[in-house]
Amino acid sequence: MTHQPLSTPFAFDTEFDALGVVVQASAFRPAKRSYAPLEVEALIAQARLEGRTEALAESESLQAMALSVIGQALDAAIPALTQVARAHREQSAELALAAARVIAASALDRYPAAPLQAALESLAQEIDASPRLVVRAGDLGDAARARIEQLCADAGFSGVVAFREGPGLAAAAFQLEWADGRAAFDPDEAFARMGEVLKSALAAEAGHAEALTPETSLEGRP
What we know:
alpha+beta, four-stranded mixed sheet, two-stranded antiparallel ribbon
């Protein structure tokens, strides 16, 4: 390895013409070995500025690298997060349905005639002209029959109410038959249908749900 000399002694590279006019000036510039205080301060300020510029550039480069790593991590986590969000929605809906079933079962135990009363009120115009209404229920004791007859009268039905035993029916379940139609209610079947509708709604939502992306998952964050 060779070292360049600090100075080149006797470097006479200035060219003159025949009249003594300088044709090409010498490229030699002696190294400055002393500086005034103002020059030293200027050099220090310049060095600080260059150091700060280099530090900022390095910081921005590290920040860009960190953001790239975060983006890659989010891309890798998005499928799992999407699955977790979907499972959370499904479990929340199932929990809500289970809670509703418990509450409804308690209410039906306390007021077993409420569904039949609601059905008679809703079907009042349809059964009004029928001469006969067949009521099939699980518990048809004397008190229950009197209660149903009173409900029919309150609904405006003036025909004959015929009762049929339904041993397999739940406490609040019933079946109504009249000349032009029939109606039925079973709590277990009702909740089974509600469960199927819920599953269909969740499946449809899963097919049209907005896909999570790093942009949407970080939306609204500082």
